[in-house]
Design goal:
Shape: globular
Number of domains: 2
Number of strands: 10
Largest sheet: 2 strands, antiparallel
Structural class: alpha+beta
Distance between the termini: 60 Å
Length: 240
């Protein structure tokens, strides 16, 4: 029972759960984790040490870098079990409730790991599905909703400066639904979500702020979706 309590305590921390979820997506260095989660490096190192002690994370080397990875079978089994115990209707945390009530800038648009979240992030995923740029990938595991790019979506995102090829070659999942902290609906996570955020920043649509996850919208995201350098049309053939 003592060992079980120690294992439960290992999972009983939001930052460690975020690190484990990230490592399930792909192996990562400390720098990768710091960049994608926005956590201080000392805290990441401390959490990794605890996870290694519990035997759910291991470390290897790639050149001069130390690369962390999870025991995917064990970690996924635990997270799946926790999901079954969680309420069927996702609940907002007290902090998220305050953000929603005040309708703050963080609720409107922010980063989640390294992709776009908040109201704008949810709207972005909805729009991409509506335009048939993405479709559900039923071949993937059922614990999370995965997506794949359609040929139309590949062309449309490429026209908007998204490095789709690099996203597809990344050592992580391409596209999946990430449950939004304030909206309790999905926004787009994965390598494609990262590539889209980078393209929006480069295009002057979004401006990232130092030391905060909140981002500033310089132009409407929907204008970026509607823009085209090659006469793009939606799946139904109507021009946008």
């Amino acid at each position: 029972m003592q060992q079980l309590v120690q294992l439960v305590q290992t999972f009983a921390d939001e930052s460690r759960l975020r690190i484990l979820t990230l490592l399930l997506d792909s192996d990562a260095t400390v720098s990768d984790i710091v960049t994608r989660l926005g956590l201080p490096q000392p805290r990441v190192s401390t959490h990794l040490a605890q996870l290694r002690k519990a035997g759910v994370v291991s470390v290897g080397t790639a050149g001069r870098q130390r690369v962390y990875r999870v025991d995917a079978a064990r970690v996924k089994a635990v997270l799946d079990a926790l999901q079954t115990l969680a309420p069927t209707t996702p609940r907002r945390s007290p902090q998220a409730i305050r953000e929603v009530r005040r309708n703050t800038a963080m609720r409107q648009a922010r980063t989640c790991y390294d992709h776009l979240a908040g109201i704008v992030g949810v709207q972005l995923l909805d729009a991409m599905l509506r335009r048939a740029w993405l479709e559900h990938d039923e071949s993937q595991e059922k614990t999370r909703r995965f997506y794949r790019l359609t040929p139309h979506g590949t062309q449309a995102l490429g026209d908007r400066g998204v490095d789709v090829v690099r996203a597809q070659k990344a050592r992580r999942r391409l596209a999946f639904g990430c449950l939004d902290w304030t909206e309790r609906r999905e926004h787009l996570g994965g390598a494609l979500g990262t590539a889209i955020l980078e393209a929006m920043v480069a295009a002057g649509i979004i401006q990232r702020q130092p030391h905060t996850r909140t981002v500033v919208l310089l132009k409407p995201v929907m204008d970026w979706l509607d823009a085209s350098s090659s006469g793009d049309a939606d799946a139904s053939g109507d021009s946008r």
